[in-house]
Design a protein that fits this description.
This protein is mainly alpha-helical and 333 residues long. The chain contains 15 helices and 5 strands. A 3-stranded mixed β-sheet has the order 1-4-5. It has a two-stranded parallel ribbon with strand order 2-3.
């Protein structure tokens, strides 16, 4: 037993030592990422305005690519909130607020919830903030008929990915929450006012119809894929959830967060967020170091990856079987 404890202690020291080498933002890489994300997004948006009178199908084709850059902008916003994109925390906040504005997300509100998500991920006793609502088998069976219907409706892919994402970013992000501080609420309102001003100015320039025909498809495609990415990173067959007594930061980070093995081009557009096990081990690691950290260190190679196709099983997994420690379908209850 003493040898096992010593081995675990050494293992902990190993991963802490490893990730500390990658928790170093590179200013040149960060600014280049802003340029090669924001620049193409603006150019593509202008091209969509130019092509809308030629062919709306061409405009929609450009919308798919534009949405990819919007996801990439969101990753920059995400990293800034973790304080991992620049060495200067003031610069992280300034760029984070600007990028949040571009992706219709108030900086302080979102990152407050996201910080709680990182502190409680995989903890069955601390669910509810920053997570996709997930019940255990026992909790689901205790629900009333209406409760079961509501939970089934919420977990239905049509709602979870077809409707909820656009509602989240266009409506829910506009409102404050009771537990937020006065300062956090103020920033939500300021973000809303800034959005109203910019949207109004854009509509005056190109017309409301053109604005909606461009911005809505881009936002819809980006939010659907963004929510899907977040969902599959914590909602897969062998994901680990534990009670507070058995919860451990390292173990839950590595086994309660997926390694979503995407093609190289999709890793680029998603800021390597598929290496989510590394991200949860160290939120202070900039996105451009996640892939490098995983592949350069054998300690992380025993994490079983989700592939682009195997991840689709997650669409059908609904409740957590705490006894067997796995997500299951309703039909498996």
């Amino acid at each position: 037993m003493a040898n096992e404890k010593e081995k675990d202690d050494n293992s902990d020291k190993d991963w802490i030592s490893i990730i500390s080498r990658y928790n170093r933002p590179d200013g040149l890489k960060s600014w280049w990422q802003i340029i090669n994300s924001l620049g193409p997004y603006i150019i593509l948006w202008i091209l969509m305005v130019k092509t809308i009178d030629i062919s709306y199908w061409l405009t929609l084709g450009l919308a798919v690519l534009t949405a990819g850059f919007m996801v990439r902008i969101f990753i920059i916003f995400h990293d800034c909130g973790h304080g991992s994109f620049f060495k200067s925390q003031k610069m992280n906040k300034i760029i984070g607020i600007i990028m949040g504005f571009l992706v219709f997300t108030p900086y302080h509100k979102w990152h407050r919830d996201h910080k709680i998500h990182h502190q409680t991920v995989g903890n069955l006793d601390k669910r509810g903030i920053g997570d996709v609502n997930t019940l255990t088998v026992e909790e689901y069976l205790k629900l009333s008929k209406w409760g079961k219907f509501s939970y089934r409706f919420y977990r239905n892919p049509f709602f979870l990915f077809g409707i909820a994402p656009i509602l989240l970013f266009t409506i829910q992000n506009r409102f404050t929450k009771g537990y937020m501080s006065l300062r956090e609420k103020m920033y939500v309102h300021l973000t809303n006012l800034a959005l109203i001003a910019v949207v109004a100015a854009t509509i005056m320039l190109i017309g409301w119809k053109t604005f909606l025909l461009i911005q809505l498809p881009v936002l819809y495609i980006a939010t659907v894929h963004g929510v899907w990415l977040f969902y599959v990173q914590h909602q897969y067959r062998d994901v680990l959830w534990e009670d507070e007594s058995g919860w451990d930061y390292k173990t839950t980070a590595l086994h309660g967060s997926s390694w979503f093995k995407l093609p190289r081009i999709l890793n680029w557009f998603t800021g390597n967020i598929g290496f989510h096990h590394i991200h949860h081990l160290s939120p202070r690691m900039p996105n451009y170091n996640l892939r490098k950290c995983h592949y350069e260190n054998p300690i992380f190679h025993n994490v079983k990856p989700l592939t682009f196709f195997s991840a689709f099983e997650s669409l059908f997994l609904r409740v957590y079987d705490a006894k067997n420690k796995r997500m299951i379908r309703f039909s498996e209850i």
